Each structure stands twice: as C-alpha cells, then as structure tokens.
Amino acid sequence: MHVHHGRRQSFASFEAAPTPLRNRSNPGAVPLALRLRVYLTRGRLDRQLASGRLCESTAALALRARQLGDPRHRRKVARDLRGIVDYVDRVGSSRVISAVVIDRRAVRAGRQAILGLAQRLEAAAPVSFRGVALTRALITDGLSPLFNPDSGQTVDEAISRIVDALEVSAFDPDLE
C-alpha cells in the first residue's frame, strides 16, 4: 500500500482495470498499441510507479502495474535477485572483468535480506505493484546499493523500504 495525496494505492485496488485497457471486441484483451508502448517505456513507467504515481492516471501505468503484480513477473524478479547472490557466491573474491560491477561486499552483507525479498515475491500473498517496481529499480539501477558503494544506503536498508512498500492493506478505500 502506498499513500499518495491522501489516497491509498495497491495492486489489489487495480484489479478492475480502467476502461482504456479494454478492447470492445474482446473485453479481456489489451490493445496491441498500448502493450507495445508499455514495453518500450517500461523503465520510465516503473520509475513513476515506484515514486508513487497512481496507476489509474494513465492506461499505460495501469497496464504496467498489472504486469508488475503478475505472478510470472514476480517470479522472474525473484530469480534475478537470486542470480545476483549466486553470482557473488560463484566469483567469490576473484577478479572479474564485467560490464556490470556488482558491489560484492554489499551483496554478501545483504544476502539474507535479498533472499528473503526473493522469497516474499514468490509467495502467493498479494504485493503492491509499487514494491515490485522498487525491487526492479534495486536490480537494474546502477545507483542502487547492489552496484554503488556510495549509494547512501545499505542493501538491508533498501530492502527494508521495499518490503514495507510490498505490503497490501487489508482495508483499501479504493476498493469500496
């Protein structure tokens, strides 16, 4: 749940998609043009959702929020988190030449939190799309504590913030 200008938002509040997502000939289908636009701008959309923008504000944000909450997507993000830990375990302290420089010390220090977050994403319990967007930022943003020792926060602190953001309130005024 995320409170934004007095309103709560959660993945659960998104269950009924706004009308622009619906195709008149097939009510469950999403127009191809919208799916393509979301695919091409998913990074920007994720940043907007992570910062608290309401998913109902545009059809693209609404679709991206639904994608982020999808169990398959959650499992993929969990696999990516585990992959980072596995990589650090595999390379140990040996020298590695790579385009991506993972802060191995930070990953080792936050290992349990990273694996706990992966487990939370794989669980059947509902999660907020904002929390999933924040998790994606953690694993894709070069300024996150997984990659940047000068990020200003530890991996544990970042994940604590994400875990809080993943929580979905049992009472959500938007559902009424």
Please explain how this structure is put together:
With 176 residues, the protein is mainly alpha-helical. It is globular, with a radius of gyration of 17 Å. α3 (59-69) crosses α7 (129-140) and α4 (71-91) packs parallel to α7 (129-140). Strands 1-2 form a two-stranded antiparallel sheet. It starts with a strand and ends in a 10-residue tail after the last helix. Mean pLDDT is 82; it is low at 1-24 and 170-176. It is built from 8 helices and 2 strands.
What are the salient characteristics of this protein?
single chain; 176 residues; mainly alpha; 2 domains; two-stranded antiparallel ribbon; 8 helices; 2 strands; 52% helix; globular
Which helices and strands appear, and what pairs or packs with what?
Blueprint: E1 2-4, E2 7-9, H1 32-40, H2 42-50, H3 59-69, H4 71-91, H5 104-109, H6 111-122, H7 129-140, H8 155-166
Antiparallel strand pairs: 1-2
Describe the structure concisely.
The chain is 52% helix and 3% strand.
Specify the number of helices: 8
- Structural class by helix and strand composition: mainly alpha
Distance between the termini: 15 Å
Q: What percent strand?
A: under 5%
Q: Indicate the overall shape.
A: globular
Helix content: 40-55%
How many discrete domains?
2
Average of the residue pLDDT scores? 82
Q: State the order of secondary-structure elements, H for helix, E for strand.
A: EEHHHHHHHH
Number of extended strands: 2
Radius of gyration: 17 Å
Detail the poorly predicted runs.
Answer: 1-24, 170-176
Query: In what order do the strands lie side by side in the largest sheet?
Result: 1-2
Largest sheet: 2 strands, antiparallel
